[in-house]
Amino acid sequence: MSRLIVAPTFIFSGFVKAVDPLGTQYKIQDYLQAAGLAEVVPDWCTLGASVLLAALEFTLGILLLFAIHRRVTSRVTVCFLTVMTLITLWLAVANPVTDCGCFGDAITLTNVQTLLKNVVLLALSLIIMRWPLKMMRFISRTNQWIVINYTILFILGTSVYCLYTLPIFDFRPYHIGADIRKGMEIPEGEKGPTFDTTFILEKNGERREFTLNDYPDSTWTFIDSKTVQTSEGYVPPIHDFNLERTDTGEDITDSLLQSSSYAMLLIAPYLEHADDSHFGELDQIYEYCTQQGYDFYGVTASNDDAIERWRELTGAEYPFCRADGITLKTIIRSNPGLVLLHDGIVIRKWSHNQLPDMSALNVPLEKSEWGQLPTDQVAVKIARILVWFVLPLLLLTLADRLWAWTRWLRRKKKEEQTTDKLTSTKQEKQ
């Protein structure tokens, strides 16, 4: 029973991390920020740790489920859960981050709930380690290497694919098909929380903090912004979606969401780290939107200097808006990435590695497949996972058990023949 609880939990936890490796990286960076190590550890290390963490959890879950290398697997599981329990104990006591991220964005737990969950899993894993040989094998030793290698290949391939494109399962409030306006609504009778936004600006080498009430003139250069919750209340799934044009300072959030036309957003949380290798395709998409009368905005959290450098590098002519960096990283896991809106609904998303084919954009979006919600629903994606991973392992298990059964039959038959021969010899001597 312990095995059948711990194994699926590890498999689920590892998989939801693998389909969103950037989200796991952001959570690891939050931990490092709380520990004062954010400036010490480079981004490539946190991204690598994100991929390896997902692979370790998923692989341990599969090994436990199939009872492969039972002694070693159970010991590694206990060591892993011990470390995780200590970390979540720190989270529950110090509360440096509000969400542990143990199940990605699929399931959100408080720090106390996470600690209790890890304590239970640790207790169950200790039972497994105490009696590892009690776990019945689902596959013979001869074929264990197939399960191990296929599992590692599958989970690493999933992470790489989702890094190159976008997460195949999107658990965030800005998923395709989400209505941003409804996501911002507060139910009747509920009181919403209050937030204070502070803007950090610079002028003549002096940096100061301003609020919306005392925001200065355009002679000050925007550096960063931060939003702090000042009172509790119902927090809607989307509560920080605000777009402000950098050239005029106009807040275009309402007009953009209420527009019945299409709008394309080129989202780059931080232009300093954005991939600029596809600027030619982006410029073509911008020209297409201009010809069709659709809005096209670059959206970033970077300052004016970074925007100007981007324009110099790419020749971008589209206007820019400014938004919160965390919000932008939540909207799309790509830097940059394209988001298509229509009537406040997220219609499509594209990574900079898989931009829409311009040959298909020779008609208005109203008549194009790109302007419609995709038919690739969650059920289809789950079916693909079943076909590519679960079904091969199931067939391997059935074939292995059939092979083991035939071996048992042959051995039993041989033993019966030997017994009959000994009986016959004994009778002859008598």
Detailed description of the structure:
By secondary structure, the chain is an alpha+beta fold. Helices cover 50% and strands 13% of the residues. It is built from twelve helices and nine strands. It has a six-stranded mixed sheet with strand order 4-7-6-5-8-9, sandwiched between helices. A three-stranded antiparallel sheet has the order 2-1-3, with no helix packed on it. Helix 1 (2-18) packs parallel to helix 6.
Q: Quick gist of this model?
A:
With 430 residues, this protein is of the alpha+beta class. It contains twelve helices and nine strands. The chain starts with a helix and ends with a helix.
Helix and strand topology:
Elements: H1 2-18, H2 21-35, H3 43-66, H4 70-94, H5 111-130, H6 144-164, H7 180-183, E1 194-203, E2 206-210, E3 221-231, E4 244-245, H8 253-258, E5 262-268, H9 279-292, E6 295-300, H10 304-314, E7 320-322, H11 325-331, E8 337-342, E9 345-351, H12 378-429
Parallel strand pairs: 5-6, 6-7
Antiparallel strand pairs: 1-2, 1-3, 4-7, 5-8, 8-9
Helix pairs in contact: 1-3, 1-5, 1-6, 2-3, 3-6, 4-5
CA gyration radius, whole angstroms: 28 Å
Q: By helix and strand content, what is the structural category?
A: alpha+beta
Estimated share of beta-strand residues: 5-15%
> How many β-strands, per DSSP?
9
First-last Cα distance: 55 Å
Main sheet: which strands, in order across?
A: 4-7-6-5-8-9
| Share of residues in helices | 40-55%
Query: Helix and strand succession?
Result: HHHHHHHEEEEHEHEHEHEEH
What assembly state would you assign to the polypeptide chains in this entry?
Answer: single chain
Total count of helical runs of at least 4 residues: 12
The parts where pLDDT drops under 50 for at least 5 residues are none
> What spatial form do the alpha-carbon principal axes imply?
elongated
